[in-house]
Amino acid sequence: xxxxxxxxxxxxxxxxxxxxxxxxxxxxxxxxxxxxxxxxxxxxxxxxxxxxxxxxxxxxxxxxxxxxxxxxxxxxxxxxxxxxxxxxxxxxxxxxxxxxxxxxxxxxxxxxxxxxxxxxxxxxxxxxxxxxxxxxxxxxxxxxxxxxxxxxxxxxxxxxxxxxxxxxxxxxxxxxxxxxxxxxxxxxxxxxxxxxxxxxxxxxxxxxxxxxxxxxxxxxxxxxxxxxxxxxxxxxxxxxxxxxxxxxxxxxxxxxxxxxxxxxxxxxxxxxxxxxxxxxxxxxxxxxxxxxxxxxxxxxx
Amino acid sequence: xxxxxxxxxxxxxxxxxxxxxxxxxxxxxxxxxxxxxxxxxxxxxxxxxxxxxxxxxxxxxxxxxxxxxxxxxxxxxxxxxxxxxxxxxxxxxxxxxxxxxxxxxxxxxxxxxxxxxxxxxxxxxxxxxxxxxxxxxxxxxxxxxxxxxxxxxxxxxxxxxxxxxxxxxxxxxxxxxxxxxxxxxxxxxxxxxxxxxxxxxxxxxxxxxxxxxxxxxxxxxxxxxxxxxxxxxxxxxxxxxxxxxxxxxxxxxxxxxxxxxxxxxxxxxxxxxxxxxxxxxxxxxxxxxxxxxxxxxxxxx
Lengths: 301, 301
What we know:
homodimer, nine-stranded mixed β-sheet
C-alpha cells in the first residue's frame, strides 16, 4: 500500500570533520521518502522554491516517488547550514533560512487524501495536524518530531499524540517531552497520550520500541566511519513507515521488522553526504546489510 | 567445569538517590563469583581482614562457593565509600581504604591450579598476572578491568592481553585503552594484542561483543528503577564467565548466550543494594527474566 510522506525539503550546507559540502539535497521529507521507497510506493508532500534544481528532483523521480504533492512556491527553498564536531553526536546549526517554508500550507491533491499510511516527517506540529485534517481515515499514522517543537509547540505536539499510531523521537527528546529520565516510564507516559507505539532512537545505541504488547530493542549497525549523520533519523523513520505500509497489519513483531529496515537504511545514509549513498543503493546491498544486522542480533541466525 | 574467580572483596558504603547503606558486601570477586555460581561450580580467590563478618561469608557459602582460596589476613578488610548522583551513571569515590588489599599476594591452593576456566575480576594487573603464573594451562581466561588500571598500570595491562581469551571492559575504557573513539576499531586494536574476543559493556545500552567470527550486540534489560548500580559490571562478567565454564567449547554463538546470562544477572544486581537481590534470586526468576530479554531481542521468540 502507498505511504504519504510529509516533511521539509531543504538545500543543506554541511561541515563535518571529513569535509564540507554545499547545495546538498536535505530536509526530513527528502530522506524519509527515499527510504520509504525501498518498501512501498511513496507520495511526497512538501514545498520547494523556484530555485530548486532539477537534479535534486531527479533523485526522487528515479525511485518512482509521486511528486504531485510537492508545491513549488515563489521564493527560495528552505536552507540549512550545520557543523558537526569531532564527536559527530554534537551538531551546531549555523543558519536556518525558512524561505518558502515560512508560509507553507500543505494542500493534498485529491488522489493523496485516501492513502492508508501516513508518515508525518519532522515538521511543525501545526502542519502535521493540517495534513491529518485533510486525510480520509488513514489506517496507520507515524509521526517524527524534534526538540525544537517540544520547546516551541509543546501543546500542539501533545495534541498530535492523540491522532497518531506510532511516535518516533530520540532519547533526549522522549525524556524532555515526558519530563521523565527513565525511558520505560517516558514511553508509557507518551503512549498514554495516544500512540499505540513509541520508537525511541538512541543513535549509535540503536532503537527502543514499546507498545502494550511489549518491547523491542535493536542495535545500530556499528560502522567504522560516519561521513555525515544528517538525515539518519529521517531515513530510519521513513524506512520503518515504508516497511509497515507493505504489510497486512501492524503489530509488535511487524514493527520490530520495520525497525530493522529503518536501521539498515539509516546505516547507509550516514556513509556519505546527503542522500548520495541512499540514491545509489541496490537491493543486493540492502539485503546484505540486513543479514549483517540480523547476525549481529542473533549470531545463530 | 569449575571456574576460578579472583578479584577484590570489600566492605562498601554506598549512597544513591534512593538511600544510604553501610557495611555492605562488595568488591569485584564478591559479585562475579556469586553471578558465576548460577552456572558453574566456583572457587573464589581473594583476601579479607580479620574483621570480615561471618554473615557476608555466608552469602557465598549458601551458593556453594569454594572459599579455600580466600585468605584471611591480619588487619582490616578493603573498604570503599561511593556516592551516585541523580543520574546514576555518575559516581564519585569518597574514600578507598586498601587495608589488607595493599599487601595481597594471591596464593592458589594446589586444588585450584588446574581449574580450566579463570575469571580475572577487576584487580591490579600485577595480581591478575600472578594468578595466571600459578595456573596450569587454563582452557579459557576472562579478564575484566577498569579505568584506574588503564591510567596507572597500562603496560602491565597491555601485557595481560596476550595471556587472555576474552577481555571485558566498558565503552569509555575501551576507547581510552585503544586511544580510539570508534568501538569497532578499538575492539580490533584490543584483539590484535591477544584476546580472541572483546566484550564492551555499555551500561543501559547493553553489550557489544566482537571476535574474528563476527559481532554480537545485546541490549540491557530496561528497568523502571535502579536502586544501586554497584557491581553490575562484575556481575555481568561473572555471569558470562560462569556460563562459558558450563559449555563444551567457546565460540561466538556460545559467547552470545553468555552475554545474555550476564545481562540477566546484572539486571537483578542493580535492583537492590550490594548482593541482596542476587543472593535471594531463584532459578524461576532467572528463567523468567531470560525469557523477557529474549523477547526484547526477538519479539517473535
